[in-house]
From TrEMBL:
Domain of life: Bacteria
Source organism: Streptomyces minutiscleroticus
Annotated Gene Ontology cellular component terms: membrane
InterPro entries with a match to the protein in the record: Epimerase_deHydtase (IPR001509), NAD(P)-bd_dom_sf (IPR036291)
Coiled-coil intervals, chain numbering: none
Name under which the protein is recorded: Epimerase
Residues spanning the membrane: none
PANTHER family with a match to the protein in the record: NAD(P)-BINDING DOMAIN-CONTAINING PROTEIN, OXIDOREDUCTASE HTATIP2
Subcellular location: Membrane
Lineage of source species: Bacteria, Bacillati, Actinomycetota, Actinomycetes, Kitasatosporales
Length: 226
């Protein structure tokens, strides 16, 4: 499989990228981003691109891919709705449209989050905008999926970009074994998220909006022998 990853320098994206690179069935991973990952790997190719509303300049490099794992996102803390919408909705839909035009059979896996509301009735700005993004993606392609993890534990050595998240993960990461036993339906890891994406890219899923339990179940499936 040939995979495209957005947001590979973020906490979730780092884990998803690592999972893709270690999978035997993945032959190439193309990372599209504004900053380099700092990684080197025989399967890894990086494409630096600045304008995430227009992918026309790199259109020729988007063909022939099997899946896109879209891990790009930002915290809504301190942001107004207009700016948050550009990053969350506009960037995501621009990428999906460009990729599906170049690779029509591509699976598009979008990392959303628990609490996302696709009804438009919530007062929480981030939940409403993410819900609109999910709805637009699901309408755009039958092979689009929204992943709504609750709490995602990072790979060892992975660093979050947001200071509040750095502090949060520093406090709760040692509690992961306990939380996995007590509240397993709300806990996953970046590795499990990456494995779930790969499984769904291979075989699809009965649901197109996946909560944490769905993600962990998909991650537990072993891929077929090459």
């Amino acid at each position: 499989m040939r995979i495209i990853v957005f947001g590979a320098t973020g906490m979730v994206g780092q884990g998803v990228l690592d999972t893709c690179l270690s999978d035997e069935q993945v032959t190439e991973v193309l990372v599209i981003g504004r900053t380099p990952t700092g990684r080197t790997h025989p399967k890894l190719r990086e494409l630096h691109h600045q304008d995430f509303t227009d992918f026309t300049p790199i259109k020729s490099q988007l063909t022939g891919h099997d899946a896109c794992f879209y891990c790009l996102g930002t915290s809504a803390v301190g942001m107004n709705e207009a700016d948050y919408r550009v990053i969350t909705y506009d960037y995501t839909l621009a990428a999906a449209r460009a990729l599906l035009a170049s690779s029509p059979g591509l699976t598009f896996a979008y990392v959303s989050g628990v609490g996302t509301d696709g009804t438009g009735r919530t007062r929480m700005m981030w939940a409403r905008v993410k819900g609109e993004t999910e709805n637009a993606l699901l309408e755009l392609s039958p092979r689009a999926y929204a992943f709504r993890p609750a709490f995602v534990f990072p790979l060892p050595g992975t660093k979050a970009k947001t200071k509040s998240y750095v502090l949060l993960y520093r406090i709760v990461t040692p509690l992961y074994p306990l939380l996995r036993r007590v509240v397993p339906r709300y806990v996953t890891t970046t590795v499990q998220l990456g494995k779930a994406m790969l499984q769904i890219a291979r075989a699809g899923a009965p649901r197109r909006v996946l909560e944490t339990t769905d993600i962990n179940e998909a991650a537990a499936h072993r891929p077929p022998t090459p």
